[in-house]
Every structure is written in structure tokens, then in C-alpha cells.
């Protein structure tokens, strides 16, 4: 019998990506084009430029993964239906709908955050259910209890800025380029994390929600008050990063304790942060929970996670989707 073979397509923001996931061999091909250079001069993602670039890049990326996988017979197509930029999403949705029609394949619109949540399952030694997932990206800060595919309970979320957004905005104030997260993390390496006593937002209150806009303001005030030296900027970066890491680790520990779950998954772009990983590692050893990260390239946006969700939800795939369906605002 022919194995289930899913084509995954991602175009929700500034990466165009395609991947093939099969029932017997798992992920067999994936390819990605990042638009970072395209948007760098503007200091952020320009939606219209993003859409146009997805139009240029997606079809060649799909052809490439089909070649890399040895031109398999597909069973279905999964694409990111939302949340994201509407124009960018519509490009992926249109291509998925067109391919589905022309090849007579069922199509499934996937929630982007479900992709991030389940991305550690792409690894051979991925976690078992249930687990708690910390999703930290440029657009989201979420703590979710994951009991199985489609069984998600949001435990907490950011009431204002997402963590990645706080990194990016603080980096901008420190005069670093876009995207600021990795640049700020690099600068933090040279600074003293205890130089500034920045707030650990919402740690004193019960609950699992986050807030990062106050921290951002504290960074702005510190920059105004500090001398304009490289060392002073590094101290602010290090102290900011430490405040974020302390807050995230404390909320993860609280979530594990509250749910009685002993597995923690960390996904999303900020999951690439080395200080965060180190602090969580220490906490996992001290508190006795297991810690799972997707591999670095699948922490950020990718199509492998979308193809995986398509495979796990293959029974939900619908034949004959003729219109491009995008949902820019979509809660988990
Ligand atoms: O998941 P992602 O690639 O895109 C979405 O937002 O969906 O996450 C990107 C975010 C950006 O805000 C970026 O600055 C941040 O992740 N980021 C980091 C690091 N690498 C990426 N933040 C802190 N430290 C890093 N090493
Ligand atoms: Zn993402």
C-alpha cells in the first residue's frame, strides 16, 4: 500500500517554505527562502513586498522538495491558513488550492501555531503527550498544555508585546539592526546581566500570563540615562535578556507544577536564545522535568512543521477545495 505523503507549504510572514512528510520515513525534504535581506532596510516586514516574494519563491521551492523526495505521489497538501499577514497567507493558500484542484488532491489549512507546538515531534526522540509548550516568537508568547493532536489548552499568553517583539524593539532602541533578537543576544554576551535591575513582569502575581511592555519602557529609560558607550549598551542588553529569561523560566516552572506535566517543549524563534536554553536546562535538572527543543532550523518558521501537522491531521483533509482560504487572525 502506498504511504501517506504530504506536501507542506508555509507563507505566513517572511519565510517561503515547502516540505514533504511521509508516513513511513517522516520528513524527507524541506526547503526555505528567508526574506530577511529584503526587509532589512525597512527595519521590519513590509507586507506587500512579502506577498510578492512568496509569489516568486514558493513554486520553485515546491518543485525542489518534490525533486529531492524523488517525485513521490502525493496524498494531500497542508498549507498555513493563519495567523499571519493576509496577503502572504493568500499566496500559499492559492497555490495549495490550485495544486489540489489540478492534481485532484485533498487540502488542509493548518494553524501556524499548531505547527510550532508540534514541531519537536519532527525529531526521532520527540516528546510523548502530554507536554507543556512554551511558544515564543516575534508574534506570540504562549504557554499551552498539549494533551494530543488537536487537544490544546492555552494556560497563559502575553497581554501586550510578544517576547520576540520585546527583543526586536529593545534591539532597535540599542541601535542594532533587524531582526534584533539575535543581535541583542550577541551583544548581551559582552555585558553584565546584573548591571540593571529591570522588572520581571508579572512574577509576583499568580497566573501564567505575560507582559513585556513595561520591561521595554525600563530599557528605554536605561538607554537615556546611560553613557553612550559600547560597554553600557552591552550591560543593558545583558540585563534585559536576563529579565526575560528569568520571567520565562519562572512561568514554565509554574505551568509544569500547576498541570502536573513533566515534559516541557520550547518552540518559536526566541527558543533559539542560548541563555534561555541554558537556564531551562538548569531548571530541568533541578526540578526533574524533560526538556525538548525542535532542532534550531525548525525553531523559526518552516514548512516541515506544517507538513507534519498535515500528516497528523490527514483525516481532516478535504477534497475539492477550490478557493484560497486564509484566516489572518485565528486563535489556537
Ligand atoms: O518564530 P519566528 O521565526 O517568527 C515568528 O515570529 O513567527 O520568531 C522570530 C523572533 C524574532 O522576534 C527574533 O528577533 C527572535 O525570534 N529571535 C531571537 C533569537 N533568535 C530569533 N530572540 C532572542 N534571541 C535569539 N537568539
Ligand atoms: Zn512562527
TrEMBL record:
- Major place of residence: cytoplasm
Task: State the CDD domains in the record.
Answer: ASKHA_NBD_TsaD_bac (cd24133)
Annotated compartments: Cytoplasm
Question: A Gene Ontology molecular-function term?
Answer: tRNA N(6)-L-threonylcarbamoyladenine synthase activity
Q: What gene name is given for the protein in this entry?
A: tsaD
Q: Does the keyword Transferase apply?
A: yes
Cofactor requirement: Fe(2+)
Superkingdom of origin organism = Bacteria
Its ancestry begins with: Bacteria, Pseudomonadati, Pseudomonadota, Gammaproteobacteria, Salinisphaerales
Pfam families the UniProt entry points to: TsaD
Q: Where is the Gcp-like domain?
A: 27-307
Listed under catalytic activity are: L-threonylcarbamoyladenylate + adenosine(37) in tRNA = N(6)-L-threonylcarbamoyladenosine(37) in tRNA + AMP + H(+)
Record text on cofactor binding: Binds 1 Fe(2+) ion per subunit.
Which protein, by its recorded name, is this? tRNA N6-adenosine threonylcarbamoyltransferase
Q: What does this protein do?
A: Required for the formation of a threonylcarbamoyl group on adenosine at position 37 (t(6)A37) in tRNAs that read codons beginning with adenine. Is involved in the transfer of the threonylcarbamoyl moiety of threonylcarbamoyl-AMP (TC-AMP) to the N6 group of A37, together with TsaE and TsaB. TsaD likely plays a direct catalytic role in this reaction.
Cite the binding residues for Fe cation. Answer: 112, 116, 301
Q: Which family does it belong to?
A: Belongs to the KAE1 / TsaD family.
Q: What EC number is given for this enzyme?
A: 2.3.1.234
Keyword tags:
Acyltransferase, Cytoplasm, Iron, Metal-binding, Transferase, tRNA processing
Chain positions recorded as substrate binding sites: 135-139, 168, 181, 273
- Tell me what organism the protein belongs to: Salinisphaera aquimarina
Amino acid at each position: 500500500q502506498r504511504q501517506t505523503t504530504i506536501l507542506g507549504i508555509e507563507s505566513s510572514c517572511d519565510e517561503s517554505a515547502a516540505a514533504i512528510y511521509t508516513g513511513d520515513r517522516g520528513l524527507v525534504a524541506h526547503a526555505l527562502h528567508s526574506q530577511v535581506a529584503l526587509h532589512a532596510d525597512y527595519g521590519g516586514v513590509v507586507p506587500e513586498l512579502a506577498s510578492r516574494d512568496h509569489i516568486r519563491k514558493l513554486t520553485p521551492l515546491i518543485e525542489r522538495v518534490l525533486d529531492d523526495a524523488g517525485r513521490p505521489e502525493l496524498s494531500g497538501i497542508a498549507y498555513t491558513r493563519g495567523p499571519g499577514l493576509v496577503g502572504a497567507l493568500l499566496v500559499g493558500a492559492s497555490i495549495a488550492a490550485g495544486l489540489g484542484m489540478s492534481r485532484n488532491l485533498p487540502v488542509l489549512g493548518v494553524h501556524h501555531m499548531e505547527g510550532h507546538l508540534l514541531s519537536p515531534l519532527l525529531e526521532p526522540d520527540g516528546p510523548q503527550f502530554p507536554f507543556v509548550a512554551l511558544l515564543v516568537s516575534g508574534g506570540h508568547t504562549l504557554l499551552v498544555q498539549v494533551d494530543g493532536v488537536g487537544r490544546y489548552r492555552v494556560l497563559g499568553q502575553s497581554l501586550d508585546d510578544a517576547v520576540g517583539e520585546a527583543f526586536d524593539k529593545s534591539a532597535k532602541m540599542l541601535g542594532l539592526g533587524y531582526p534584533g533578537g539575535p543581535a541583542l543576544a550577541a551583544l548581551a554576551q559582552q555585558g553584565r546581566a546584573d548591571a540593571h535591575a529591570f522588572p520581571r513582569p508579572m512574577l509576583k502575581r499568580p497566573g501564567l500570563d505575560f507582559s513585556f511592555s513595561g520591561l521595554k519602557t525600563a530599557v528605554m529609560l536605561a538607554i537615556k540615562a546611560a553613557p553612550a558607550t559600547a560597554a553600557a549598551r552591552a550591560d543593558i542588553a545583558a540585563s534585559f535578556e536576563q529579565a526575560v529569561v528569568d520571567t520565562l523560566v519562572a512561568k514554565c516552572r509554574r505551568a509544569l507544577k500547576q498541570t502536573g506535566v513533566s515534559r516541557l517543549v520550547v518552540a518559536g524563534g526566541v527558543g533559539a536564545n542560548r541563555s534561555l536554553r541554558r537556564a531551562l536546562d538548569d531548571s530541568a535538572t533541578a526540578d526533574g522535568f524533560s526538556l525538548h527543543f525542535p532542532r534550531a532550523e525548525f525553531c523559526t518558521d518552516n514548512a516541515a512543521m506544517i507538513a507534519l501537522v498535515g500528516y497528523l491531521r490527514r483525516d481532516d483533509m478535504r477534497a475539492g477545495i477550490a478557493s484560497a482560504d486564509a484566516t489572518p487572525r485565528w486563535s489556537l
